[in-house]
Amino acid sequence: MARKFFVGGNWKCNGTAEEVKKIVNTLNEAQVPSQDVVEVVVSPPYVFLPLVKSILRPDFHVAAQNCWVKKGGAFTGEVSAEMLVNLDIPWFVGDKVAYALAQGLKVIACVGETLEQREAGSTMDVVAAQTKAIADRVSNWSNVVIAYEPVWAIGTGKVASPAQAQEVHDELRKWLAKNVSADVAATTRIIYGGSVNGGNCKELGGQADVDGFLVGGASLKPEFIDIIKAAEVKKSA
Ligand SMILES: O=C(CO)COP(=O)(O)O
Questions:
Q1: Which domain holds residue 75?
Q2: Buried (b) or exposed (e) across 16-43, using 16+ Cβ within 10 A?
Q3: What is the pLDDT of residues 187-198, one digit of tens each?
Q4: Which pathway does the database say it acts in (predicted)?
Q5: Does the residue 146 lie in any domain?
Q6: How many other CB atoms are there within 10 angstroms of residue 70's CB atom?
Q7: Which CATH number characterizes residue 60's domain?
Q8: What is the structure's pLDDT at 142?
Q9: Atom of ligand 1 nearest to the CA of 193
Q10: Separation of 42 CA from ligand 1 center, angstroms?
């Protein structure tokens, strides 16, 4: 079974209500490949989640950025995973993966090495250890997308080369085959994150084991549409 391309836009801590409406308008007006070809998820800051959910085109979905790790209660400022489920927020991106998964949210789980770890040659050990920590908590792999996100490439403008991304994604898939199952390895989307933009997305997306992207800075700009369209490179692959 072919893996459907996945493009996540992680808005992090950005935007005013007006800016958010403008981004959503741009997304809503865009001509992009159909849902059969690409799955698109955007994660606005919490305060904008209901707004974005109410105005975003129905073929795109929203993700919450992180959640509280227990049931609700007297925890100032926290938002529990149960509240997200109650509001029909389907996706989650952040580091509280175990709790989000336990509540039935679909998660984008992030792994990746620092520059020091890459230079020391320990990328795969680091990625394997982080993936194991996630795998230990997953019972339903269809709810998981793994983002390999080298820390040194996040928000730096220093993107991994297509060969670097492919090498790590390939190794990560082999890890899944050995430690989880051949089926999970074949079907789990492994997406690349770290300074993806409209200029580098096609070459990265053309790599056999790059199943999409987790995009930060460029997801706030119109070039996010080009990144979504990079899904088309898989058609000719
Ligand atoms: O961290 C990221 C997405 O979660 C990547 O961010 P940038 O695309 O800004 O490097």
A1: 6-234
A2: eeeebeebbeebeebebbeeebbbbbbb
A3: 999 999 999 999
A4: Carbohydrate biosynthesis; gluconeogenesis; Carbohydrate degradation; glycolysis; D-glyceraldehyde 3-phosphate from glycerone phosphate: step 1/1
A5: yes
A6: 12
A7: 3.20.20.70
A8: 95
A9: 5
A10: 12
Cβ of 154 below 6 Å from ligand 1? yes
For the cut 90, the answer to whether the pLDDT of residue 237 exceeds it is no
Instruction: Say if residue 139 is exposed, middle or buried (CB neighbours under 10 Å; 0-12, 13-18, 19+).
Output: exposed
State in Å: Cα 95 to ligand 1 middle: 14
DSSP 8-state code for residue 66: -
Instruction: Specify the number of domains making up the chain.
Output: 1
ipTM: 0.98
Atom 6 of ligand 1: nearest residue by CA position: 216
216 lines ligand 1 (CB under 6 A): yes
Provide the 8-state DSSP code for 231: G
Asked whether residue 1 is assigned to any structural domain, the reply reads no
Q: Which two tokens stand for residue 233?
A: 């490179």
Torsion of CA 196, 5, 84, 216, to 10 degrees: 0
Q: What pTM, to 2 d.p., does this model score?
A: 0.97
What's the angle, vertex CA 191, arms to CA 187 and CA 196, rounded to 5?
160
